[in-house]
Design brief:
A seven-stranded antiparallel sheet has the order 12-18-17-16-15-14-13. A four-stranded antiparallel sheet has the order 6-7-8-9, with no helix packed on it. The protein has a three-stranded antiparallel sheet with strand order 2-11-10, with no helix packed on it. By secondary structure, the protein is an alpha+beta fold. β3 and β4 (275-281) form a beta hairpin. The protein has three domains: 2-164, no CATH class; 252-380, Rieske Iron-sulfur Protein, CATH 2.102.10; 405-597, Naphthalene 1,2-dioxygenase Alpha Subunit, Chain A, domain 1 (Alpha-Beta Complex). The chain has helices at residues 2-29, 35-41, 47-78, 83-92, 96-100, 106-117, 121-128, 149-164, 182-199, 206-218, 228-246, 326-329, 423-430, 436-439, 542-560, 578-595, and strands at residues 248-249, 252-258, 268-272, 275-281, 288-292, 306-310, 335-339, 346-347, 353-355, 375-378, 381-386, 411-419, 453-459, 463-470, 487-494, 498-504, 510-521, 524-533, 596-597.
Length: 612
């Protein structure tokens, strides 16, 4: 503030001198005899200049002061939690006023201090710091009249130095003498630390820095080495974040299988969510059932057995548990059962035992012995509800779905591909549009124009939706008729881990990539997908579309299986990552509400049924 005041006054004085000189020269140039007399006669002409010169001086002072204020505020924002460091940075920075007036103002500051306190700083120091007994300086009777922070800081430093007493230079730490014990070294260190604390001025930071150094040394830390406690906190936070990503969401629907994979008359074993289930279809009405793939008798895999129709009145017939045929499948009142290949035990869709060939009829428990799970078949997928079976159907979350799968004007091809990595990175890759221009550059990516435009993101209870546009390029000359300058894209991410990417090309062509990323285990997953299109409805195009989808997912597989997020202490995301960031936040809300289940641990397999 002092420099700003001096610069402002100097600017006003310079303007006044220049204006007076120019006006005097102007009068002299008019040929007036005796220009001093002319100046006296025209003195009124100088008054407006004096006014505007003062305006210029005050304006200059205010402008420089405002610049100083903003500079100090920027320093405070940079160090919000360290006032001492912020003060040191503010004093040591090269400001505009210091550059314009590069002189020391110690004399002026001491004069101002003397005018306000009635004594000089040196007198206060000598009076307050006798060699034998240091004494603190008494505060001034009147409050300081200066509101400027720089002057207040100077006065505070002077008072702190006076209160601390005489200070000797801090030398190098003393070396331990030969023969000293570890206890002697600790005592010497404590004494030296106490001496440093007494000698260090308040606010200088040397005492706290020395104490921190001693604490680090006491824990065996070398200079520059991370504190394990701080590092452990960061690691714990990151580990918790990664563990929550790997977790499974309960009370949601998962695509357990493709409908085309469940062949008539045969059970299908599926690895999912750290366990294994068996799917089979009732051969009378086509209803799909799901049980744990482990016979409760000795744990044999039911998926290795066969289907049979068991009727109540024929339960005592050993042949009733043989592989079914079309004739006995439609038997009235019969149950389509999956039969264990080990001892022939037959279980219906509810997990109840319907036949034991080696036992007398009816001499077995009537309650369900195998866990059964709700399943629905929609859009070419078999959906498994993993959660509390007691939850009413109307209160369960919706099946992640795209209605075009059931629209007769659209045509879909299906497939699945496994990944040897956790499901989370595979799922996020499906809603990541920034990677297509590079990872799929030889197909539909466009590395020459990779920018994503006009992205907006919305969300509701169960999904996140992003809309944006990209620059695409035709896959081949055959697709030139679909080329457009900008391709509108809608990316929808649905809980627990499904995505639908809709693109609109020229000629009214629309395609939807519907992908369900299903966890198999902590380090394995599978993408069950459907590529849906509103053109080329003939089946001859299906093979081309399916092969194109497998090519794209194969390129994803090579890269995604190499991702190592556990090696990062933090992941940085930018604007194009908005869909992933928004979905992470949505999923975390459900995890925080208790819907997250950690990946499977080493324990006896008890099926998918969560502990109640």
């Amino acid at each position: 503030m002092i420099r700003s005041f001096i610069l402002g006054i100097s600017a006003g004085a310079a303007c006044e001198a220049a204006h007076v000189g120019l006006e005097a020269l102007s009068l002299a140039g008019q040929g007036s005899d005796g220009w001093l007399q002319a100046v006296q006669q025209n003195l009124g002409q100088f008054a407006p200049l004096f006014v505007w010169d003062h305006v210029a001086a005050v304006g200059m002072w205010a402008a420089i002061y405002i610049i100083e204020v903003f500079a100090i505020l920027s320093v405070l924002k940079r160090y919000p939690d360290d006032a001492q460091k912020a003060a040191r940075q503010a004093r040591s920075r090269s400001s505009l006023s210091k550059r314009m007036l590069p002189i020391r103002l110690g004399l002026i500051k001491r004069t101002l201090y003397q005018l306000t306190t009635g004594s000089t700083p040196t007198t206060a120091l000598s009076a307050a710091a006798p060699a034998a007994a240091p004494a603190a300086v008494k505060p001034a009777a009147q409050p300081l009249k200066f509101a400027d922070s720089a002057v207040a800081d100077v006065i505070a430093d002077i008072e702190a130095q006076a209160a601390a007493g005489p200070r000797t230079p801090l030398g190098l730490p003393t070396l331990p003498q030969p023969g000293t014990t570890k206890q002697d070294k600790q005592q010497q260190g404590e004494g030296k630390d106490l001496q440093d604390k007494r000698q260090a001025p308040r606010g200088s930071g040397s005492s706290s820095g020395k104490g921190l150094q001693e604490k680090r040394s006491g824990r065996g830390l070398l200079p520059g080495q991370w504190d394990p406690a701080a590092q452990e906190a960061l690691v714990d936070r990151r580990s918790r974040e990664l563990l929550q990503r790997k977790s499974y969401l309960r009370n949601f629907w998962y695509a357990a299988a493709l409908s085309e994979k469940l062949l008539p008359g045969a059970p299908l074993g599926v690895d999912i969510l750290g366990s294994r289930v068996v799917l089979f279809r009732d051969e009378a009405d086509g209803q799909v059932y799901c049980l744990d793939d482990a016979c409760p008798h000795r744990g044999a895999p039911l998926s290795q057995g066969w289907l049979a129709t068991v009727t109540p009145d024929a339960a005592d017939d050993a042949s009733s548990s043989q592989p079914s045929s079309s004739s006995n499948t439609a038997a009235a009142g019969g149950h389509t059962c999956v039969v264990c290949p080990y001892h022939g035990w037959a279980f219906d869709g509810a997990g109840k035992l319907q036949d034991v060939p080696s036992a007398e009829p009816g001499r077995w428990p009537k309650r369900p012995l195998v866990n059964a799970y709700p399943v629905e078949e929609r859009g070419g997928f078999i959906w498994l509800f993993w959660g509390d079976k007691r939850l009413p159907a109307e209160e369960r979350p919706p099946i992640p779905f795209t209605p075009e799968l059931e629209d007769p004007t659209w045509h879909a091809v299906y497939g699945e591909i496994e990944f040897e990595c956790g499901h989370w990175g595979v799922f996020e890759n499906a809603i990541d549009m920034a990677h297509i221009h590079y990872l799929h550059g030889d197909s539909f990516g466009n590395s020459e124009k990779p920018r994503i435009h006009d992205m907006t993101t919305t969300r509701d209870t169960f999904h996140v939706e992003a809309q944006f546009s990209i620059h695409n390029k035709p896959v081949s000359k055959m697709w030139d008729w679909t080329a457009v300058d900008s391709v509108p894209v809608t990316a929808k991410a649905m809980l627990p881990s499904s995505s639908a990417i809709t693109i609109q090309l020229g000629g009214g062509v629309r395609m939807i990539t519907f992908v369900n990323t299903v966890p198999i285990s902590e380090n394995r997953c599978v993408n069950r997908f459907a590529l849906v299109r509103n053109f080329a409805g003939w089946e001859g195009f299906d093979g081309y579309a399916r092969n194109a989808m497998f090519k794209i997912l194969g390129e994803d597989k090579v890269m995604v299986e190499k991702l190592t997020p556990e090696r990062l202490s933090h992941e940085f995301s930018l604007g194009p990552d908005a869909p992933q960031v928004a979905f992470r936040a949505l999923r975390q809300e459900w995890v925080d509400m208790g819907y997250g289940v950690p990946p499977e641990s080493v324990k006896p397999r008890r099926g998918l049924a969560p502990d109640m």
